[in-house]
Task: structure prediction
Amino acid sequence: MFGGIEAGGTKFVCAMGGAAGAVLKKTVVATTTPDKTMAEVNEFFRACHRIRPLSAIGLGSFGPVDLDPDSPTYGYITTPPKPGWSNYDIVGALKKALGLPVGFDTDVNGAALGEYRWGAARELDTFIYVTVGTGIGAGGMVSGKLMHGLIHPEMGHMLIPKDPRDKFEGGCPFHGGGCLEGLASGPAIEKRWGKPASELPPDHPAWDLQAQYLALAFANCVMVLSPQKIILGGGVSKQKHLYTMIREKLRRLLNGYIKHDKILTDTDSYVVEPGCGEESGIRGALALAEQALPRKEESLA
Ligand code: ADP
Ligand code: ZN
Result:
């Protein structure tokens, strides 16, 4: 049995599950202060452990986070916009409280791993998972390995040109209306149009603009990473008509330059919904736990 945590700025989803990624028990804890939130998280896992012993914990976290195993601040949430969580040793806190190995990655890499194991990215090795919700984030794999690099990708803050039609100043504290998140997150849509995104009808001009911004970002991803698939999740992607609009605009932006059937004719299977529905993140966290188990050669050493 494994414990999984999908740690977000508003809530921590915690689950117990097995190696097949099925969630057996789940709870949701509000993100308040580290002490209070983590006390509830630890309480949940202690209760799980009494039912079925846990072997490891997997954590996909909001960030930015330090993923460098050689860094003195490995396992920290470093400089998040969420007050109270700066320089917080979240992996250390879990290890100390539960005494279990902890697998750690970004929330979006966790979701990408869930999709790789059980969802839309099975049998792929290079793909991205994008979430458009309160913020915009993306993770994924290159050649079968989750992307880390210098820190970790921050594709949600990709710099993209503002549409000439768009008079909204933008909502990113770092880039204003110069980046994807500043222009296309759920809160950006709400501020621009004066209504929550969920209340805008499918024929509202908001969606053409939204699809344009996401297609611009995806076109850049295609050029930079050559992903075999782009998986789009998050609250805003509940607007299912967006997928068709994005696919058309992506084709138009690439303008025949990327000569592959996935782009030219088969875009329906290229920009897709998550195969795990809303469970990519939490199931991915269970997979991160499995990855944290000591490997056989290590345990023999
Ligand atoms: P979070 O990003 O906080 O983890 P979500 O992925 O659910 O959570 O994203 C929340 C955002 O998604 C909110 O800004 C909300 O406006 C937007 N959202 C939620 N439901 C819908 C919907 N049905 N249509 C469009 N936007 C939605
Ligand atoms: Zn930004």
In short: The radius of gyration is 19 Å. The pocket of zinc ion (ligand 2) is lined by residues 157, 172, 174-175, 179, 181-182 (CB under 6 Å). Residues 205-225 form the longest helix (21 residues). The chain has two domains: 2-107+285-292, 120-273.
